[in-house]
Every structure is written in structure tokens, then in C-alpha cells.
């Protein structure tokens, strides 16, 4: 006998089931139209990218949708090691497009600037630690 119980806080779900149910894989019941609504942008079974996936956050839409599609496709299908190293120029072109259209991508550009500042601060802290360690020796 199997049953499901959700904790009071609402974040945990506990599922009790027979061992045979846990080891038997579920058969897919979704149709091809339902699979387009799934949260993953890339379907490895079909090799297709779902450009309408909400997980892409509208990045595939104009004004820089074409640049995004080129860079994302390149990364998804890349066989280089490390993965995507052959796509750097396409990602740079996408980033240039974002910067040329700040009205459409202001939120993403602001987030990138914050990350750059944090990285710069972090590297300064590492330098300070190393200099202090040298002084104490």
C-alpha cells in the first residue's frame, strides 16, 4: 500500500510505497504536446530545444533572441571539452547585444555588474590575507 503525506510546513513530501513500486520505472504518459510545456528547455530524447520554455525567461525573444539562440544552441550541442568552450564568441556577441539594448535587459545587466563587484572584492580579500600571512611569518 502506498500513500503520500505532506509535512505541516509545506516544503517536504513523504511518500511511502512498496519496494516493487520504487524500483519499477513509471511509463511516460505525456503526449508530445504536453512535453513542450515541461520545464526543461532541451529534450535530450528528441534533441530539440523548446524556445518557448518559461525557464528561458524570455531570452529567446527579440531584440537579442537570435544571438541568445545561437549561443545557447552552440552550448547545448557542443562536444568540445570543456563543454561550450567553442561557443565563447557567440556568448560574447549575445552579451554585446544585451549591452546595446539596456532597456530590454537592464535586470540581467545589473545582476552581472553585482557579480563582477563581488568577485573583485573577493580577490582583494584574498590578496590581503596572503599579504598578512607573509607579514606574520
TrEMBL record:
Record domain CHCH: where: 64-99
UniProt KW keywords: Disulfide bond, Mitochondrion, Oxidoreductase, Protein transport, Redox-active center, Translocation, Transport
Region (Disordered): 1-45, 104-137
Bias-annotated ranges (Low complexity): 19-41
PROSITE patterns listed in its UniProt record: CHCH (PS51808)
Pfam families (UniProt xref): CHCH
GO BP field: protein import into mitochondrial intermembrane space
Membrane association type: Single-pass type II membrane protein
Compositionally biased region (Acidic residues): 108-122
Gene Ontology MF terms in the entry: protein-disulfide reductase activity
Database matches in InterPro entries: CHCH, CHCHD4
Entry's localization field: Mitochondrion inner membrane
Basic and acidic residues: bias regions: 1-12, 123-137
Protein name per Swiss-Prot or TrEMBL: Mitochondrial intermembrane space import and assembly protein 40
Organism for this UniProt entry: Entomortierella parvispora
Species classification: Eukaryota, Fungi, Fungi incertae sedis, Mucoromycota, Mortierellomycotina
